[in-house]
Amino acid sequence: MSQQVFRNARIVLADEIVEGSVTVTDGIITAIDSGPSQIGEDFGGYYLIPGLVELHTDHLETHYRPRPGVFWDAVSALHAHDVQIAGSGITTVFDAVRIGSDPDLPDMGQHVEKLTGAIDSGRKGGWLRAEHFVHLRCELPTADVVEQFEAHAGHEHTRLASIMDHTPGQRQFRSMEAYRLFYKDKMGRNQAELDAYLDARQAEHDTYSPPNRAHIVARAKELKLPLASHDDTTLAHIEEGVADGVAISEFPTTLEAASAAHDAGLAILMGAPNVVRGRSHSGNISATDLVRAGLLDILSSDYVPFALLQAAFVLPQRVDGLALPQALATVTRNPAKAAGLDDRGEIAIGKRADLVRVQVVDDRPVVRSVWREGIRVS
Question: What is the pTM of this model?
Fold first, then answer.
């Protein structure tokens, strides 16, 4: 039997913060005691919080494809990603892997094989710091998304899928003018080239999106694979998602969509960078405004891993009446619950000892130590 005690800590529980100690036995929390103790590792009054749970990050793909046309070794990319994830206090991560090829990413299937293969290798090899699952980002208006879904949806480490349609003129970019402004410089195309690109994307949407969505939704139900919708913008989007059995509304772009998702019982997920920056990078609704309205359940680091912890500490400073335990629930207990991981996400007796020691420096959280199932990983 292996036992550890962490003492002199500000322990963030589900509804309160207590000063005391936590006992871990064989990777499980077995005692939480308030008051001073002379036994165990001295936390020096720093926070002890649950390990963060990340449901949607594109960060692995960023390491795998650090520049356009440059693809890194997948295992090395995963290693770099994992180090940063754990160092940011994230002990459970759902790596979002895009499926569905397009002109910018031809032959996506081979890249998916490399990325999911690296995750499988890392899990079996026991060298990953965080626990990694696969989140399939299903790009509906593509010719091969169903083929790639069938190849990976049934894998034991695939635990979530999101149905996405980034066709210009809807959802995230309802305004074609906004899309043009956002992508013209990024894509390096002149006006005529951009117009041709937009016409091709609309044609792909009309051809592929409806049948691909129907197939993936039906198969996800058969596999009991949780589904998320993405960039919901209108009431119709929410109604469609509810009919399809989605459980999570990722990054709703309007108050109307977020309100409808909340009323329908969907978990609402927004980006932590949106909170930290105070606004959406593409001009959509502010995540902080959704918190104030009681319409946000989960935060995702999206493209900046450390944003997850930073946002949880920023929110109580910006939202009146919101305490740190409630803010931290958006990055710990709530995402764990949404993913069906009832063994983690909270400092409570019987839960996994996924723990993070946090110091606050100039109102910013700093990760000092990270444990996963009682084993220090960062």
Answer: 0.92
